[in-house]
């Protein structure tokens, strides 16, 4: 079966753009046996020039499903069929990228009707879909809409099948013979095609779902190591049987692979990953204003979707820091929740508290010292960048820590200087932090000087 596909998008690059419409026609070589089409909300505004070209507006997709809502159905239509499209790499790259974001791995065989047309019908002045169909007398309705272009591609592909006397289509689909390879359901060429570079790899099950995420200094070597040994245990054999496809993402350094692995495990929650799936019981400093107008510093367990003033792994560490701030900035331990009960705080009795807990000191005056303590605490946290190899010679990698917080990482042109305030964030992708990542980066910064740029 062939899945003849056309999509409309917000732009030309899959990593930075969304899909606005999908059409998939399942074709058995004689007729269309199944048809699927839908508008998609890309989650970003559609540029005006794209709206003019396709006629698809922001209003039209406002109530359309997000891609992740249709991903399972789209993958089901594509997964077992030969992916056919005009300029196939464009459509395939978008769907592969967005399916991977939803936890599916698209590894279909592909056929490009542009390349096939050049081989089967050589000598035409243009092989764009519109010009090609005009040359062959194929009518197109609803041009630059997914269903209209997909329907035209069906007619074009049917024509190519009939005219393919030199078996160009069979040659395009042939795969060089490979020896048997473990796991039993994994095509050997997928392993052989893996790069000898640092990065993250994903094992997918029969439905394309990610079941394991791993990191590697050498992706191919690390993946192969999963399949060595003769452990016949039930869990291992089940794990091997469930691996159908592998995908990967190359990173510039092994450190970046470690970080990305941690992020992906917590994003995808793969069934066979055991480590790093525990909940982070981290603590943080928070500040709020009470009913009397006094700012209160408090240590609490870190809450989801909140950003503490400062985060730390151990409660005792927070108490030590808070006591230090109380001494240095003459804060009230009762207003910082370090002393319970009624009455004056102990420092007031010793004449080392200025009386905020008894309203003897105005809130505005006390709050100035609280704010100064917060600024001091944040300034003590390190800001640095870790610069290393890129994925290719023309770029360098960069990991950014900002006042003790992990901002993100990415790749910067090699001829661009990396300095504080240099605009490096424009090149970086923000990522969520966790205790593992913070500890990893602090340990790395403490043990390495090469590539470490400290900021004030």
UniProtKB/TrEMBL annotation:
GO cellular component: cytosol
Pfam families, sorted: GIY-YIG, RNase_T
One of the protein's GO biological processes: nucleotide-excision repair
InterPro entries, A to Z: DnaQ, GIY-YIG_endonuc, GIY-YIG_endonuc_sf, GIY-YIG_UvrC_Cho, Ribonucl_H, RNaseH-like_sf, RNaseH_sf
SMART domains linked: EXOIII, GIYc
Residue intervals passing through the bilayer: none
Limits of the GIY-YIG domain: 196-274
GO molecular function: 3'-5' exonuclease activity; DNA binding; DNA-directed DNA polymerase activity
PANTHER family in the record: DNA POLYMERASE III SUBUNIT EPSILON, EXODEOXYRIBONUCLEASE 10
Self-association state and partner proteins as the record states: DNA polymerase III contains a core (composed of alpha, epsilon and theta chains) that associates with a tau subunit. This core dimerizes to form the POLIII' complex. PolIII' associates with the gamma complex (composed of gamma, delta, delta', psi and chi chains) and with the beta chain to form the complete DNA polymerase III complex.
Stated role: DNA polymerase III is a complex, multichain enzyme responsible for most of the replicative synthesis in bacteria. The epsilon subunit contain the editing function and is a proofreading 3'-5' exonuclease.
Entry protein name: DNA polymerase III subunit epsilon
Species the sequence originates in: Chitinophaga tropicalis
């Amino acid at each position: 079966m062939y899945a003849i596909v056309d999509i409309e998008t917000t732009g030309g690059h899959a990593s930075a753009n969304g899909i606005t419409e999908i059409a998939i026609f399942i074709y058995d070589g004689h007729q269309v046996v199944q048809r699927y089409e839908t508008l998609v909300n890309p989650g970003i505004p559609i540029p005006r020039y794209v709206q003019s070209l396709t006629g698809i507006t922001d209003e039209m997709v406002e109530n359309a499903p997000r891609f992740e809502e249709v991903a399972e159905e789209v993958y089901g239509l594509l997964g077992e069929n030969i992916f056919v499209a005009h300029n196939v790499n464009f459509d395939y790259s978008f769907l592969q990228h967005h399916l991977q974001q939803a936890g599916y791995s698209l590894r279909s065989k592909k056929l490009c009707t542009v390349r096939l047309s050049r081989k089967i019908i050589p000598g035409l002045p243009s092989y764009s879909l519109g010009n090609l169909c005009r040359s062959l007398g194929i009518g197109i309705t609803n041009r630059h809409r997914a269903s209209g272009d997909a329907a035209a591609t069906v007619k074009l592909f049917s024509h190519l099948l009939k005219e393919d006397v030199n078996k160009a289509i069979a040659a395009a689909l042939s795969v060089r013979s490979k020896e048997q390879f473990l796991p039993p359901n994994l095509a050997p060429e997928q392993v052989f095609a893996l790069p000898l570079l640092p990065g993250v790899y994903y094992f997918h099950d029969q439905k394309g779902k990610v079941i394991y995420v791993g990191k590697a200094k050498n992706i191919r070597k690390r993946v192969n190591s999963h399949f060595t040994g003769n452990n016949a245990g039930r869990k291992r054999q089940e794990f091997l049987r469930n691996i159908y496809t592998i995908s990967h993402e190359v990173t510039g350094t092994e450190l970046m692979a470690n970080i990305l692995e941690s992020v992906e495990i917590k994003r995808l929650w793969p069934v066979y990953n055991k480590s790093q799936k525990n909940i982070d019981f981290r603590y943080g400093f928070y500040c709020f204003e009470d009913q009397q107008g006094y700012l209160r510093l408090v240590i609490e367990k870190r809450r989801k979707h909140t950003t503490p003033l400062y985060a730390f792994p151990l409660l005792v560490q927070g108490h030590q820091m808070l006591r230090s701030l109380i001494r240095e900035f003459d804060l009230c331990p009762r207003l910082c929740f370090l002393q319970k009960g009624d009455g004056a705080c102990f420092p007031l009795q010793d004449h080392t508290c200025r009386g905020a807990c008894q309203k003897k000191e105005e809130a505005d005056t006390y709050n100035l010292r609280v704010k100064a303590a917060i600024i001091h605490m944040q300034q003590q946290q390190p800001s640095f960048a870790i610069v290393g190899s890129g994925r290719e010679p023309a770029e360098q990698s960069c990991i950014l820590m900002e006042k003790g917080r992990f901002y993100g990482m990415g790749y910067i042109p090699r001829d661009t200087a990396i300095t504080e305030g240099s605009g490096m964030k424009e090149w970086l992708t923000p990522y969520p932090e966790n205790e593992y990542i913070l500890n990893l980066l602090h340990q790395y910064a403490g043990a390495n000087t090469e590539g470490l740029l400290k900021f004030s």
